Amino acid sequence: MRSYKLAKYNIKSILKGIIIYYALFICVITGIELIGGFSIENGSSSGLEFSSAIFLFVLGLNSFRETFYFTQANNIPRMDYFKATAISIFPIALAMSIFDVIINRVHNLISVSPTMYDMAYYNSFSFKGPWTQSNSIQTLFGTITFLFALYIVAFGIGLLITMIYYKCNKIMKIIVSLSPVAVSAIYGQMVYYNHDFGQGVAIFIDNILGISTKNSYMAVITFICLFIILMMFVYLLVRKAVIKKV
Question: Which residues constitute the domain of residue 48?
Answer without folding.
Answer: 2-239
